[in-house]
């Protein structure tokens, strides 16, 4: 009986350890690396891999040939979690806002910060054909969506 209990405890530990490792792994998000354009607009998002535990990015717009950065972005492994960090210069007094990966299934990654006014969730969903659907959601999952096309 003690042997069965020991084996079950070891299996539970191994499964828990594997789940933690999976949660920390940015390789599942490597599809983001590169430049993405919002469908039908001159709005872009760019990601690059800095290390196994950090990606950096930026959102920008091109208007009349001038590029304007609208936000800086980070994805990093932090305290056994993957955190999406957005900094928008003219919002939140320029403070960075963290969103923690709360779910990742069926090619959908949901980053959440329930303490933030809006958005509370930022979701990236990898679609077929080199597209990403982005959901920007607030209270009661109300918000907006747009599609990125890989450049």
Secondary structure layout:
Blueprint lengths: L1 H23 L9 E5 L4 E9 L2 E10 L2 E13 L2 E7 L8 E10 L2 E5 L8 E7 L3 E7 L5 E8 L1
Antiparallel strand pairs: 1-2, 1-10, 2-3, 3-4, 4-5, 5-6, 6-7, 7-8, 8-9, 9-10
Pfam families: DUF6265
Keywords: Signal
Organism: Gilvirhabdus luticola
Describe this structure in words.
- The chain has 1 helix and 10 strands, in the order H-E-E-E-E-E-E-E-E-E-E.
- With 151 residues, it is of the alpha+beta class.
- The protein has a single domain, classed as Beta Barrel (Lipocalin).
- It has a 10-stranded antiparallel barrel with strand order 1-2-3-4-5-6-7-8-9-10.
- The chain is globular, with a radius of gyration of 18 Å.
- This is DUF6265 family protein.
Instruction: From the 3D structure, determine the CATH topology.
Output: Lipocalin
Mean pLDDT: 88
Instruction: Please list the strands of the largest sheet in the order they lie side by side.
Output: 1-2-3-4-5-6-7-8-9-10
The total of beta strands comes to 10
Helix content: 10-25%
* Radius of gyration based on Cα positions: 18 Å
CATH class: Mainly Beta
Number of domains: 1
Structure class = alpha+beta
Low-confidence stretches: 5-23
Query: What distance separates the N and C termini?
Result: 59 Å
Specify the oligomeric state.
Answer: single chain
């Amino acid at each position: 009986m003690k042997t069965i209990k020991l084996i079950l405890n070891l299996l539970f530990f191994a499964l828990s350890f594997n789940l933690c490792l999976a949660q920390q792994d940015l390789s599942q998000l490597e599809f983001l690396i590169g430049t993405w354009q919002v469908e039908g607009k001159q709005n872009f998002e760019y990601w690059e891999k800095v290390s196994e535990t950090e990606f950096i990015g930026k959102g920008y717009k091109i208007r009349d040939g001038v590029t304007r950065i609208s936000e800086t972005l980070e994805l990093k492994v932090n305290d056994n979690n993957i955190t999406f960090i957005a900094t928008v210069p003219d919002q939140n007094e320029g403070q960075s806002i963290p969103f923690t990966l709360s779910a990742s299934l069926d090619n959908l990654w949901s980053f959440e910060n329930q303490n933030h006014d809006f958005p509370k969730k930022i979701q990236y969903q990898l679609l077929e054909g080199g597209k990403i659907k982005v959901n920007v959601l607030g209270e009661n999952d109300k918000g907006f969506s747009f599609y990125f096309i890989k450049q």
